[in-house]
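Input record (one chain):
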Amino acid sequence: MEKCDSSSFSRPSFSPAVFATPFRQAVATALLTTLPIGCATTHASSKPAAPITTVATVHIPTAEAPDQADTDAEEEVARSRCSYFEKLQASQVSFKKVKDYHYGLAVAQDVDGWTYIDLSGNPLSAERFDYAEPFDGNVGEVSKNGELFYVNRQGGVGRKKPEIQNETPDPKKFVGLDVVGIFYDGMANASIGFNDYFVNETGHIQFQEDSKWIYHDFSEGFNAVTRKVDNKAAHVDESGQFPYSRLFKVAGDVHEGRAAMKDDSGWLHIFPDGHDAYSKRFMRAGDYNGGMAPAKDNSGWHHIDFNAKPVYPYRFNGSVGPFVENMSVTVDNGRWFHIGRSGKRYPNRKVCRD
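The corresponding structure, as predicted from the sequence alone:
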């Protein structure tokens, strides 16, 4: 493999100002000052790297139509320029962090702050915030300089978040209960004196909690519980009974009829009756959503189907999340982005456009 020597090649003499946007101007400046022109990427070929056509004398058009005589040369320069732009984008342009899509918009953090992006990665507006919460209907809550604001789906910013009137529980339903918590899947924590219970939405007491266990929220009729003395985990049903006798190291909520669990051999999914959904074990596993669940094996993070088979050939070394609105928050090599159900990365913007 021969080392690429750029000393004999000239750099382009065009100005970054010819590019239409500040972003492209900034990238052009980076290219002019950091990238050697004429050095191809090193590879296994024994042939020396061929220099890229010198562009010092080529006119880069702005708004004017190009001269016919220069069209071929300019097109080749444009292709080379786009190649460098795309390489730079692939290596440097990324969000610092992203969250799940809600109502077609996702919270994302870039170098200037927090914003909302669409499926193409385009920001909702030029405004940046110190923090942003996912959209809830037509409203997203944001903060800037210690003040709370809200934004709508058109990018408008308001000072006060609209008041949301929560439905007050009918006191007649809960006579005799001192405290009633938030309902999840039709069940809520409640207390009478020093005793804790779970009640349904009619106020009927389903069962009294066992003080030896820590209870969580119900999901699809089951509650993931943890035993206080040894942190062993399992599930109880809506009558407070254990549907199986096995104990696990970690128990997850039931989603789509399966729960992510950890036993002595690793992570897997089980059915609510305690039977394994498949025989394989993973290093980590998450909740199913839309027939797919996050999982990590020796090659990295990916998504699996109900049979524990990968749904795409890629692996990511950071993490993948459950699919929300057909998108999964994914981290790879320190970069945050979204992937679709085929494993395709979003946003998939091109820096160079036709």
